[in-house]
Amino acid sequence: MFDTVVKSVNGLLWGEGQILIYILLFAGIWFSVRLKAIQIVKFKHMFSLLKGSSKCKKDDISSFQALCTGLCARVGTGNLAGVAVAISLGGSGAIFWMWVIAILGMATGFAESVLGQVYKVRDSSGEFRGGPAYYIQQGLGSRAFAIVFAACLFLGYGFTFSAMQTNTITDALNYAFQVPTFYSGLVITVLAGSIILGGFKAIARFAERVVPLMGILFVAAAVIITIMNLPQVPAMLKDVFLSAFGLQEAGAGAMGAAIKNGIQRGLYSNEAGAGSVPHAAASASPIPNHPVTQGYIQMLGVFFDTIVLCSCTAVVILLADVDISGEMEGIRLTQSAMTAHLAQGGVYFVAAAITLFAFTSVVANYAYAESNLHLFKLDNKVGRTIYTLLYLSMMLWGASASLKEVWDLADIALGLMTVVNVIAIILLTPTILSVNRDYNTQREKGIEPEFKVKDVKVQGKCESGIWD
Predict the structure, then answer these.
(1) Is residue 455 part of a domain?
(2) Tell me, what's the pLDDT at 57?
(3) Transmembrane residues, as ranges (predicted)?
(4) DSSP 8-state class, residue 128
(5) Contacts (Cβ under 8 Å, ≥6 apart) of 54
(6) CB-based burial of residue 411 (10 Å sphere; 0-12 exposed, 13-18 middle, 19+ buried)?
(7) Helix 344-370 / helix 331-342 crossing angle, nearest 10 deg
(8) Could you give the number of structural domains in the chain?
(9) SS3 of 122, please?
(10) CA–CA dist 315, 219 (Å, integer)
(11) What global pTM score does this model have?
(12) Looking at residue 398, what is its pLDDT?
């Protein structure tokens, strides 16, 4: 019965109904047009903000830490296992559509991150909290709609995604070192528990140290493999573009399958529009003290996650002489491809990479859902304890669950979150445009942008007093 319901809803969202594909494409095009191709026109400015992104007020979270926390959640199984799933089911052409949804998604990610900052609040511990449930309740004045999103978030980031990340880690370790999945899952659960109990600030500090290092190592490995196989690169790129439009019969590459799997796995990887990253964006105390700053920083996160890291995984797989069956394959396909390039060391490298990538996601996922406890006045010792125990229990369950079972649950949770969030941010477009206009006006005058809500036309009301 449960499997039937999950299959039916996923069919509506991702299958024949393809609601999510149309919604994401619409949102990406909508914000790209309304923000005047901000992801391209302001590309250089986006990078320039990294220079001062580590600055923040004392005891607050910096823009760089918020970026790393966002990347913690983004950079995970979607980058290594998700790309493999996309290629195995959609052919090499799926990578092209993954790029398309990432470029469009950069504008969507900017929009939702700006809103996360505008409508953030301080909790009883003095930490910033925010996200879709907050901007839905304050900006749109609908607590019921906010509760719907929060429920979807808890289903996804609160429980399902942690199980899926653990599943991928334990499968990779089992394949590389024959470690029983239950025991490796138990160790991962204990380690994650020791970090998440420190709260959002501890998670941000952990992310700041781990994310840059693991990203650099993985990109370096992909660059080395590309150089080793340089003569095959033109043919690989040709195959990607031809397969994207159904012009090549090789592999599983019908155009429909390429689009569906590229967009689906692209969204799972970069999360633009899903409503997850605004939680990390809201946690920051950016300098300059303006919501748009964090919008640019998180937009950079979408670029780095999909255009850089997912492309690295795709290159590793597509340049390897491995058989792509057309059946769903996850992290083991990536390990097999890496082995083809680096012999047995490839299996170990991917096992180590996915362990780091997915583990950081587990930690950030906890923070996203936990930030919504404040919305329901459950951010007390009892509420946090119950949530933490449930979260860690789902991690342990995921260690031994089947690949399809875990991914199906992750897809349904992500899909429902995205539907609610995209509706909300489109309705809040006037606020996004107004705040962005305020930022640009101050920069044109040579002023370091500073946001004051009384100077900007904002929908609903900012109840926190932070921007007064």
Answers:
(1) no
(2) 63
(3) 20-43, 64-89, 95-119, 140-161, 181-203, 210-228, 240-259, 300-320, 347-369, 381-400, 412-435
(4) E
(5) 62, 63, 64, 65
(6) buried
(7) 140
(8) 1
(9) strand
(10) 11
(11) 0.83
(12) 80
Tokens of 220: 């370096």
Would you state the pLDDT for residue 174? 85
In a domain, 456, yes or no: no
Considering the domain boundaries, does residue 464 fall inside one?
no
The counts of H helices and E strands in the chain are 23, 2
Structural domain containing residue 438: 16-446
- Asked if the peptide bond before residue 449 counts as cis, ω within 30 degrees of 0, the response is no
Q: Which of 49, 269, 251 is nearest to 168 (CA)?
A: 269
| Residue found under tokens 């509706």 | 423
CB environment 143-161: b (16+ within 10 A), e (fewer):
eebbbbbbbbbbbbbbbbb
Distance CA 25, CA 14 (A): 13
Helices 19-34 and 255-270 pack at an angle, to 10 degrees, of 60
Residue 201: give its domain's CATH number: 1.20.1740.10
Which positions of the chain have pLDDT values less than 70? 1-2, 15-17, 52-63, 65-78, 124, 199-204, 207-208, 211, 247-254, 268, 286-288, 325-330, 402-407, 463-465, 468
d(CA 108, CA 10): 23
In a domain, residue 239? The reply is yes
pLDDT, tens only, 174-201? 877 888 888 888 988 888 888 777 765 6
